[in-house]
Amino acid sequence: MEQKKKFESLFEGYLSNKYSTADVDQIISDIPKDELRRLILQEFYETKEPKVDKTQVQRIVDNVKLQLDEILRKQPKRLINYRTIASVAAAILLCLSIGFYFLMDKPSTPSMISSYVDRSPGTYKATLTLDDGSKVDLNTSKGGLKTDDNTISYEDGSRATSKTTEFATLVTPRGGEYRITLPDGTKVRLNAATSLTYPLQFTDSIRQVTVAGEAYFEVAHNAKKPFVVKSEQQSITVLGTKFNIDTYSEVGKTRTTLVSGRLQLQQYATNKKIVLTPGQEATLNKNSWAVQVVDTENSILWTEGYINLNKQKLEQILSNLSRWYDVDFSIVDRKIEHLVFEGEIPKTKNLSTALAILEKAGNLVFEEKGGVIKVTTRR
Fold it and tell me: Is Transmembrane helix one of the keywords (predicted)?
């Protein structure tokens, strides 16, 4: 908490022009990237007249570029600290990303959007289905679930159900998220419209669960008992790692992103196997894998409270908004479905904020008819 107050004080001083241009590099180095993003977005969204303007954003961008140039100029090539360069480069990318918000006018009111009913953001909610078919509506005020000694409890220690069961399925609806700690200590976070089926005890030689939708795993290490995640098209085998899996059916593909550790993927149709290393993402489309190096932070932004727009097509963004705000979209003008956007939106904001940003950045119009929001190009 004290550290967060320090960051807020530094940032507030910068916004109040307390620091000179020469001091900006110290501010950037003192405030972690994630925290800087949070502070800037908070300033942008929560004040009627944000203090951050184009000039200040440009100062940050120019400053970190100067730092990178200075490092490259002063250091002999064989002595260059590439970790430092990576850090500065990350700051530049951060500035370019958040600059998306500030280089356009702040969306002031939903009146810019043609006509639709606003929606509140999703919340922390889920249901638990036991192996006898009975369902438990989980208490949203007690944190996530944990499974230990054949009992299912909330994080505060109270029992979620008194019934006994061998398997359980945790399900989040559209507009819901939830988290759970499995019997081995593995932590799983479920995105909206996702299900996770798991045993109350891992008694076999492997630890196996089944997922549909999108989930982020932090797997507890156990070299003698591999952890296996099954989905519709593939299985993932890990020993101890952090990764994200996206199997949403409307996408038609399965995306697996490795944050740390090592993964082995096997598809059911051909039994073909591949191994991922940190920073790689494998996309399985029918029977073919495509592997690429990605910014893993974008893949797990949803776990940090943001809707990712970075290099996302409009079609994919609307699918994500549909699940989080429990609303349906229809793209009337098909040529705009491949529009690509940049930036990120706090998941705590109403639908109107998200659509106002997309409307202005993509010159779009949103109009609700019969419970479906139609998307067209502004003419």
Answer: yes
